[in-house]
Amino acid sequence: MNNQQHIDEDEVLFSPIYHSGKGFYILGGVLLTVLLFGIGMYVLQLVFGLGVTGMNQPVTWGFYIISFVFFIGISHAGTLISAILRLSKAEWRRPITRMAEVITGIVLLIGGLHPIIDLGRPDRIMNIFKQGRLQSPLLWDLTSITAYFTASTIYLYLPLIPDIALLRDRGGRFHKLYSILAWGYDSTERQKHVLEKAINILMVMVIPIAISVHTVISWIFSMTLQPGWHSTIFGPYFVVGAIFSGIAALIIVMIVFRKAYHFEDYLKDIHFNYLGTLLLVMSLLWFYFTFAEYLTAFYGHEPAEMRVFFYKIIGNYSPFFWLMVICNFIIPVIILSNKK
Amino acid sequence: MPRYGMVIDLNKCNQCEACITACKLENNVQIVSKENASMDRVMQWIKLSTLSYEGNNNEIRPVTLPTLCVQCDDPPCIKVCPVRATYKMDNGIVAQIYPQCIGCRYCMANCPYTVKVFNWYKDEQPIENEKCYNTDVSVRPKGIVEKCTFCIQRLQIAKEKAKAENRKMTEEDYVPACVQVCPTKAIAFGDLDDPGSTVSKQQGDYRRFALLEELGTQPKVSYLKAKSK
Amino acid sequence: MEINRRDFLKLLGTSAAGLAVGSGAGAVMKIPQSLSPVLYSGARIESWKLTTCMQCPGGCSLKVRFIDKFPIQAFGNPLSPINEGGICSKGLTSISDLYHPSRLTSPLKKVNDKFVPITYNEAYNILLNNLKNVIGKNGQDDIFIIAQTESRIRTNLFNKFSKETGIKNLIIDNYQSNSKSPYNDVANEAPDFIDFDSCDYLLNFGSQLSEISENPLYYSRKLIEFREKGNKITFVGSKLNTGISKLDEWIPVQPSAFGSLALGIAYVLLKDDLYDKNAETSISGFNSIKKYILDNYYPDKVEKLTGVPADTVLQLGRKFEKASAPAAYFDESILYVSNGTQNAFAIIALNALKGFKGYGKIKDAFYTSIFNNEESASENVTFNTFKNRLAGKNSIKTLMISGSNFVFNNTDQETLKKQISTIPFIVSFSPFIDESSSFAHLIIPDHNEFEKLDLKFDESIGKSVVSIQQPVVDPFFKTTDTGDIFISLIKDLKTDTKFVFESVDDYVKSITKQLYKNGDGTLMSQSKFTEIEKGLRKIGWQTDQYGSFDDFWDSLLEYGGWWNPFGEKKSYSPKINFAGKLSNSGAENNNSVRTTSKNKYHLNIFRKNLDYKGSMSLYPVLVEQFGHNWSVFYDLWVEVNPETARSKSLDDKSKVFIKTSKGKFPAVLVYNPAVIPGSLDVPFGLGHTVLGDTSGINPLLFSENIFDKVSGKPSFTETIAEIEPASSNNSFFSANTLNRKKELPGGTQRSIYA
Ligand SMILES: Nc1nc2c(c(=O)[nH]1)N[C@H]1C(S)=C(S)[C@@H](COP(=O)(O)OP(=O)(O)OC[C@H]3O[C@@H](n4cnc5c(=O)[nH]c(N)nc54)[C@H](O)[C@@H]3O)O[C@H]1N2
Ligand SMILES: Nc1nc2c(c(=O)[nH]1)N[C@H]1C(S)=C(S)[C@@H](COP(=O)(O)OP(=O)(O)OC[C@H]3O[C@@H](n4cnc5c(=O)[nH]c(N)nc54)[C@H](O)[C@@H]3O)O[C@H]1N2
Ligand code: SF4
Ligand code: SF4
Ligand code: SF4
Ligand code: SF4
Ligand code: SF4
Ligand SMILES: [Mo]
């Protein structure tokens, strides 16, 4: 009945599912090449050792940990944002939640892979299960990421079920797959009700999990005795940073989708406006935390802390530090405060 | 149970570096190539660090001391290890279990003394050194972390020897390589819990200090300050 | 006893024994075929043997650890009075030399610029015929021998050879004789030791006593005791090396000004009339010397000559005159300056004014009792003679090189290389192809030090010590003890020789027999003696009893040596005759003052504690460790006073070029406040082109040809250099790229660092 009508209205939404253009294959090819290159490099690392990464003593983690934090940070785009928005019943959210949730799933996978890539002996990874010590923040991390991944994929999947059922009903490509994934969903009232309830429960669950993930990641650092890391502010600081980067990632993906798939009717200015405001808030919050972090370090004036402090403010790392401040605070604040 | 510790008398140490060479040879520590060395990947379990210079002009004196794993009594490194590849033994030695380490390097990040080293590569070792490998110590593969173990293989041998001779182990039986070779006898080693041992007597010395004690790591390696002038 | 063989001790524990010794064995490993079954399937039994380290003049007693038949580690012998269980880095690594992949495995002959293996007999006959020919046609004067050995047995063999065959051009570059040669010149004999029992003030002119000296490990311990007794040490030198920071006072002076400073101190003693009055008779021409010093070395002038404030000179003088038994010390290092010998004379004069009270001699030293200073036979031939002959008509027909790599270790190497490549016949006895032996036409490799028999005599600890170096393994390869070759040569060149010994073993045993006969002293089986024991000895009690010489010999091998802890000492109070040599002690030398102009500095090529000699490159562990306290690895660095560096806006750890008249070379700059301002301190030891690890740069290549006219020793401290930032990093790296040679001349392969 109104299913059919629905389909006609939103034909533009379905088209990418049925027709993969030339661009799709080119992009896919490029990404595949990048992937193969990455795999090649990893094999190199397996054969020769972690030395190929350019890390050293005392830079024991380097690029992998940064990528890890980065991707896990972005992953907050999705689930957390959509859950919060859903919870606050912000109706404008509808077109973007799914996009956000997909980002979460994919990016979590990428991020979660990094600690494994980073291992000197990945062949001994089972030791974590055989001899794992729950006292190690690394284990907390493992647990919370797994939990978050599970929760957010389910959270992505449940609202998808009605849509998959639609696709199943339309037939065509991947018909079999869709019918399995749809779980016999027929839009009965009971099904709707149960689904709604499940989504609501998950929604509440996913928020603390998401927050815990990023808090725990920050704890990997702050549980050590390293100057500049050993700080109580790291938990909320990382969470704010994560949401901040998550929103940014979401906006970028939205722009790309809008352009590529002509979603102008769905992703409207209002979405960008709302998200922009959110971004501004997060940017200010981020700055607040950064300021608080460095002020306490500076005011305490502990020699070890001060070495790190000056290293970032005026030392070798100052270009990166100030670039971060400019990109994360000055530019967003200037752009976002000017209502056009 | 003894609690092994070390005291290095900086008044006696004249920075001859014999302890460094001895440790490298005793423990088959890898020699790294030029390329790796220039990237800060040198593997020394004990090294000489010049912390500062005291005085000015003609009065200047370098404050140089051998630094090694201080065998913390409350070691931050073991707390973070996800697989218990590093742990504290009953006798206080913080040991490494090489076959268990997954190479996550978390312990390195959490060692405030930055004394742990990682096998970034397996550089080909000079033949003449391979031929002289100490047969009591395994050669570590790439991808794992290692550090000073107070020459734990020597403890093992000392125990076996004492047992074979049917007697109690004495202080002379177990002497780490760096302690043994030191030309000036600057390093004292022994049981901190035995009030008669040199190391425990030296704990009360007014010159005694330990590195980063304020972190609460309770180092079991301490130093005696050089007498000024 | 501590040193019992612990054969019973099976190796268990964390062992990966098979892996360690056996890994990749076979063709690549330099061990003889006959030993490989043991290597693969030995029972891994541990054993220990004692021998003596001959890597430096110290002569420490070593405890070598074996697994099956293979020596794998060396430690110090705790019962040795010299090292008391200590050992230095070089001694620790010396075992690896045995297995060095670049070791020569048989005699080599150069055919068409390539070395080909030949048999020992062939090689020996080539050498013998050449010597016979040259002696017949040109005479002995066209033959030169350059030998570097710390063994007095071998020094004596070379001298015997020289005497018997009439080949006078024997240059023995040996620490012992070099550092004592200034004493021998003016006093006929040198003191045996610093008498730490009575000495109460040590004024050290530039010697790194505790690291590279006559007896590094003994001095390391002794100087600490010395200070703990409340005595003071003053170090005079341009650099506060790590190892000598155990001191009370540092007087920064360029080495070329050491003599002026010594005479400046002497001035104070003379002026205050607080010198030992015996000096008036023991120094011949005392009054004119006194006048010379009083006229020329007043504090203000010394301040100008040395840069040391006049007040400080006065204070030093007061300290020296107040001390009851002061010692002003120098050693061989002082000679590596253009006015080195004269500086040494000035220091001797200063000592003489206090009657050498800080020094001592051993009564009836075993060594002197049998050799009577035979070793100073070739005192007139210095490296300078050789250089002059090369530069002049260069009629040298044959050059024999043993244990020396003088090409690598000298300034002005390019000229030297050109000149020696015209010598028609060069024979080397080096076990390696190094920068010098690569010029040879014939190489008859020597045994490794763990494969040959030798004795080491030492008096520097104030007691007579004879340590035995025993062959702890059978020779791995077709090598020959150079001493044996020289003995054969004596017999073949002079048929009616009075030299009766058949081999080095024979010679060593004959000396040991005298040790057995004289019955003094004791085996190295006890390092400390109680007063009761000493008393019993004095009234004739004997602690060791041997049934026969063979028993004694066996015990000697078991304990590693003999010493006489009960021997007496006597004072060192020689008659001194400077014969006018003091009066132009180089004080007016321009180099003695700090350079004043803007971009002109002293290039000081210094020895780092580990380096000891250029041959460090044979030990990978040492090469890796070389610059570790500056975090500079396998590369040359330059230590500069931060004040000097900042004045040129150069940062710590930045890359710089150092420019001399010979060209420029790159280095990593490190700030070191313990370096005299205006000095560029560059370490040597790196930069080999053929021997061992070839990374880094040899700064001697860029030093000017300045040398001491008396001794011929190159100056390592007087080259004038400029420093500039390395503007482009690219050129820095390309100038500094490694070329580790895989293929060595002679076809030996170094398979590491592929
Ligand atoms: N273990 C071992 N010991 C050895 C040897 C060995 O091979 N192994 N070799 C022996 C031999 S042959 C020798 S010659 C001696 C040498 O041993 P040393 O006599 O100790 O000589 P150097 O190493 O040259 O040290 C001289 C010191 O003087 C100072 N100095 C001298 N000139 C200058 C200068 O122009 N500028 C600066 N900044 N400082 C200067 C520096 O502080 C330097 O440390 O060692 C002997 N001892
Ligand atoms: N770069 C550099 N130059 C120096 C010095 C320095 O420290 N560094 N020191 C200076 C001083 S003080 C001195 S005394 C001279 C000393 O300089 P040299 O007398 O040349 O001593 P080494 O450099 O040790 O060279 C010894 C050579 O002997 C060979 N050799 C090794 N073992 C044996 C053996 O068992 N038998 C024989 N026959 N040969 C063997 C090796 O090939 C090695 O290259 O150099 C002076 N020049
Ligand atoms: S061996 Fe002894 S004297 Fe030498 S550096 Fe080590 S602690 Fe110091
Ligand atoms: S010094 Fe470092 S490695 Fe050693 S026990 Fe302490 S924290 Fe662990
Ligand atoms: S590197 Fe090895 S020892 Fe260190 S924390 Fe990781 S697993 Fe544990
Ligand atoms: S105790 Fe043993 S392992 Fe530790 S630094 Fe000394 S020699 Fe090396
Ligand atoms: S000091 Fe000299 S003799 Fe003693 S171990 Fe070192 S190199 Fe050998
Ligand atoms: Mo020398």
Give the SSE layout.
The complex is a heterotrimer of chains A (340), B (229) and C (754).
Chain A: H1 2-9, H2 11-18, H3 22-48, H4 63-74, H5 78-87, H6 94-117, H7 127-131, H8 137-170, H9 175-181, H10 189-222, H11 234-261, H12 269-300, H13 303-313, H14 318-337
Helix pairs in contact in A: 4-6, 4-11, 5-6, 5-10, 6-8, 6-11, 8-9, 8-10, 10-11, 11-12, 12-14, 13-14
Chain B: E1 4-9, H1 18-26, H2 34-37, E2 46-54, E3 61-68, H3 76-80, E4 86-88, E5 94-96, H4 106-109, E6 117-118, H5 127-130, E7 145-146, H6 152-164, H7 177-181, E8 187-191, H8 198-202, E9 208-209, E10 221-224
Parallel strand pairs in B: 1-10
Antiparallel strand pairs in B: 1-8, 2-3, 4-5, 6-7, 9-10
Chain C: H1 17-22, H2 36-41, E1 46-52, E2 61-67, E3 70-76, H3 89-93, E4 108-111, E5 114-117, H4 120-137, E6 143-147, H5 152-165, E7 170-172, H6 175-187, E8 193-194, E9 201-205, H7 216-228, E10 232-237, E11 249-252, H8 258-272, H9 279-282, H10 286-296, H11 299-306, H12 310-322, E12 326-329, H13 340-353, E13 359-362, H14 366-371, H15 383-391, E14 398-402, H16 413-420, E15 425-428, E16 442-443, E17 454-458, E18 464-469, H17 482-493, H18 504-518, E19 522-523, H19 531-538, H20 549-559, E20 561-564, E21 569-571, E22 601-607, H21 620-625, E23 637-640, H22 642-647, E24 655-660, E25 663-671, E26 679-684, E27 719-725, H23 729-735
Helix pairs in contact in C: 4-17, 5-17, 8-11, 8-12, 8-13, 11-12
The structure holds ligand MGD (2 copies), iron/sulfur cluster (SF4) (5 copies) and molybdenum atom.
One iron/sulfur cluster binds next to helix 4 of chain B.
Shape of chain C: globular
Secondary-structure element pattern of chain A, one letter each: HHHHHHHHHHHHHH
Strand content of chain A: under 5%
- Give the largest interface pair and sizes: B-C, 64 and 82 residues
Rg calculated over all Cα atoms of chain C: 26 Å
Q: Report the biggest beta sheet of chain C as strand number plus sense, adding barrel if it closes.
A: 7 strands, mixed
| Mean of pLDDT of chain C | 83
Report the average pLDDT across residues of chain A. 85
- Please identify the oligomeric state: heterotrimer
For the terminal residues of chain C, how far apart are their CA atoms? 47 Å
The residue ranges of chain A in which pLDDT falls below 50 over 5 or more consecutive positions are 1-5
Shape of chain A: globular
Counting DSSP E segments of at least 2 residues, the number of strands of chain A comes to 0
Largest sheet of chain A: none
What is the SS-derived class of chain C? alpha/beta
Give the strand order, joined by hyphens, for the main sheet of chain C.
5-4-16-15-14-6-7
N-to-C terminal Cα separation of chain A, in Å? 43 Å
Structural class of chain A: mainly alpha
As a percent range, the share of strand residues of chain C is: 15-25%
Query: How many E strands of chain C?
Result: 27
Helix content of chain C: 25-40%
